[in-house]
Design goal:
Length: 142
Amino acid sequence: MLSHYLTISIEDIENLIELTSKDILDIKEAKHDDIFKRTKIKSDLVKSFENKKSMLDNELIKLVKSSDNKPLEEILDNSQQQMLEDMKDRLLTLKQKNKEYARFVVTVSEFYNNLLDSVFPRDMDGYQKVNHKPASLLKVRA
C-alpha cells in the first residue's frame, strides 16, 4: 500500500509541475484566461496531494510502530526509498517552479497596479494609499 501511495503522490506532484510550467509560459504571453481556467484544477490537485500525503504519513507511522520503532531506512525496501527520494526531488522542483511563477505574478501585478494608479491616482493618507481619485480625463461636467 505504501508504494501505491508514493506512486500516486508523485503523479500529483508531476501534474502540478506541468501545470505550473504552463502557467509560466502563459503569463509570459499574457494568456490570463488560460491561467484562471487551470486555477481550479491546480487547487484540486493540491487537495488531492495533501490527502494522499496524509495517507502516506499514516502508512509510514504504522510501519514504524509495527517494526519496534526501527529507522525508515531499515523498514523500507530500495524501491520505496527511491520513491521517497523522487518525491522529495519533485517537491523541490515544484517549489522552484512556484518561485519562478510568483516572480512573474508579482511583476504583472505591479504593472497593472501602476497602470491603474497612473490612470486613477490615489489619495495618500500618510503612507497609505486610500481611494482612487477620478481621473481628469474621465470627469464629466453636466
